[in-house]
Amino acid sequence: MAIASGLTKKRHAKERLVRAVTLLCALVSIVTTVGIVYVLVSESIGFFMEVSPWEFFTGTRWTPLLEPKSFGVLPLLNGTMMIAVGAGIIAVPTGLLIAVHLSEYAAQRTRRVVKPLLELLAGVPTIVYGFFALTFVTPLLRSFIPELPVFNALSAMIVVGIMILPMVSSLSEDALAAVPKDLREGALALGATKGEVIRGVVIPGALSGVMSAFILALARAVGETMAVTLAAGATAKMTLDPTESVQTMSAYIVQVSLGDTPQGTLEYQTIFAVGLTLFMLTLTMNLLANRLVTRFRQRYV
After folding, report:
1. Which residue(s) pair with 63 in the sheet?
2. What gap in Å lies between CA 92 and CA 110, rounded to an integer?
3. DSSP per position, 77-138
4. Are 154 and 246 spatial neighbours (Cβ–Cβ below 8 Å)?
5. Smaller CB count within 10 Å for the chain: N or C?
6. Residue 138 burial by CB count (10 A; 0-12/13-18/19+): exposed, middle or buried?
7. What separation in angstroms does the CA of 172 have from each of 163, 179, 283?
8. DSSP run (H or E) holding 146
9. CA 76 to CA 221: how far, in whole Å?
10. In angstroms, rounded to a whole number, what is the distance separating the alpha carbons of residues 21 and 17?
11. Separation between Cα atoms, residue 179 and residue 221, nearest integer Å
12. At what angle do helices 207-222 and 74-100 cross, to 10 degrees?
């Protein structure tokens, strides 16, 4: 009895230790998030005491480092969303088609080879994508559009689309594969073709996961930094022309953070205001993804 009691106490002590370690890990993530929000908000308050929030969020001219100074963030938001939407146009349909093929048509051996190869793209450093855009994508595009400048949004859209493609295809494939086989077989037994089963049963059944993959990939594109810094340039302007140079919010933060702008100045504080805007944008997209998962989730017993 004494030995059994000792073993039980020892096991309980180990369980308490594991519980404490896991709780500590959870608290670290929470504290880190709170710290990031605190830094962004505290530094942004000083900026908004000097610059009207109305001017910041509605202004169409962004020249905080030049005279006359203007602090309208819309040009940066325009560049960010243009590249994210362009990347989504490339990655979303392509990634979904890849996911459908891997889930519904590819042999198991092919799937085991192709899926890891796709996911390798996610491990490529983003700055490598930027150099790839400068040295390959842009010269290739200039063979079709001779007047295309070296820095342009179109090249950035393409490389960011390639960058988020593994996220779209992998997460979508996992969602499609989670749809029970019985639903497929039932639809086939009723006379549906393979394509009709995919369109009418599999994709609707995996809709929450597929939509979450799309939104998370777009949020990744919104926050991309080095690839768009190298490919799209640093010209903050209101434009929808993908052949022009633009600047994203993350690229501007990199530009000012290089050390040329004195710390504590209004110009330096702009990076926190822009960072807070970018944080709220990506947070909204992630909350939307979670809501879509809850709204369209299919539960199978």
Report:
1. 70
2. 22
3. HHHHHHHHHHHHHHHHHHHHHHHHIIIIIS-HHHHHHHHHHHHHGGGS-HHHHHHHIIIIIH
4. no
5. C
6. buried
7. 16, 11, 21
8. none
9. 14
10. 6
11. 28
12. 140
Among all chains, which residue has been given the structure tokens 């994210």? 84
| In contact, 96 and 170? CB cutoff 8 Å | no
Q: Which two tokens stand for residue 195?
A: 């394509």
- CA dist., res. 88 & res. 105, Å (int): 24
Both tokens of 281, joined, read 């944008």
62-296: CATH class:
mainly alpha
| Confidence (pLDDT) at 204 | 85
Q: What is the mean pLDDT of residues 156-160?
A: 93
3-class SS at 263? coil
Q: 80 burial class (0-12, 13-18, 19+ CB within 10 angstroms)? A: buried
Residue pair 273/188 in contact by the 8 Å Cβ criterion: no
How far apart (Å, rounded) are the C-alpha atoms in residues 235 and 250? 13
What's the token pair of residue 299?
């539960």
Rg of the Cα trace of the chain?
A: 24
Q: What are phi and psi of 277, to 5 degrees?
A: -65, -45
Q: What is the mean pLDDT of residues 159-173?
A: 90
Angle value at C-alpha 89, between 87 and 248, nearest 5 degrees: 30
Q: Are 232 and 248 a contacting pair, CB within 8 Å?
A: yes
Q: How many other CB atoms are there within 10 angstroms of residue 8's CB atom? A: 10
CB 159 within 8 A of CB 231: yes
For residue 291, the tally of other CB atoms under 10 A from its CB is 14
Strand ranges (DSSP E) for the chain? 62-63, 70-71
